[in-house]
Amino acid sequence: MQKKQVIVISGVNIIEAGPLSVMKDFLNQLSKINNDSLEIIALVNSKDLFNFPNIKYIEFPNSKKNWFYRIYYEYYYFKKLSLKINPSVWISMHDMTPNVSCENLYVYCHNATPYYKPTWKDWIYGGRASLFSLFYIYLYAINIKKNKGVIVQQDWLRKEFEQRFNLKNVIVAYPDIDLTDIKPNYSNKKVDTTVKEMFFPSFPRSFKNFEVICDAYKKLPENYKNRLKIYLTLDESLNSYAKYIHEKYKDQEGLCFIGLIDRKKVFEYYEQVDALVFPSKLESWGLPITEFKKFKKPIFLSNLPYAKETLGSYEKGYFFNPKNSSELMNLMKLLVDQKLEPNPTQQIKIKPPFFVGWKDLFNNLIND
User: Fold this and answer.
1) Read out DSSP for 219-276?
2) Residue 342 falls inside a structural domain
3) What is the pLDDT of residues 15-49, one digit of tens each?
């Protein structure tokens, strides 16, 4: 009987938000394609977060308690584990390259913050995150040259890694985003077409740049303000940045601070509004951009590499300087006046190695 090929997927630090979604998507795909020739072992914080068959789970509940445990696992314990199970492929899903015995070692780097230069507002309203962004670049560097491949979500990130660490083995892997639960109802027309509506769904962090939207709206002449509403997913109770935005702009009646909403409600706003605005200064992807494209409505985006790459080919993409609220204000005026002209954008050509979706990436990694 032929011995099974052991594949390790390590995500002991992943318990929430985007990284958890990525980990779940990956394990879901592996669960579907697993066969008798593979033994897939997932190293997780808690197996209660995952319920995919054909995968063996090993729990590390202490991994989130403090950094001592994390360093102990990544640089000491996993070495012993790898010698015991003899994996043919080891994929670390959370940025750190572990010290393991495995010829085919890969790291998935999803955090783009090391390539962001914090502003004074970032330090005031997100000091911990700003400090962490400076620390993260050194975390990435540990053992990075031991990897057979470094996996990132976008080509602009590949270029950053290549330049920073002098790498030639960076793989671009676009997420295969499931949009089947987004079903635009194009017959659902607005009753009041005289008032235009915009939407920005995001957790309020300083680099998300809510203030450029608010400044742009504040600069509008009154006859435009009366014909525009902007829905923002923050309220003053969420954090210091959200409180700062709310306090500074609460007198602007057209700015609707709706707080955090669930995914179903986000889709309802997609259906209702006339445009999406996405002013973030930093993203490894930008999921709302991909989702909103299905509605074929205008999207106002930061004129940055991540946004152009995420948008790809689209007929109604409009870019503005994320530091210039006047540029966004002018786009708002064009929206209200219904004078936005089509602005076709093109898909960025990505050189190999480049994959779309986990299935193609994984098949390449295990057969390489």
Assistant:
1) HS-HHHHTTEEEEES--TTS-HHHHHHHHHHTT-TTEEE-----HHHHHHHHHH-SEE
2) no
3) 776 677 788 888 888 888 767 778 888 998 888 88
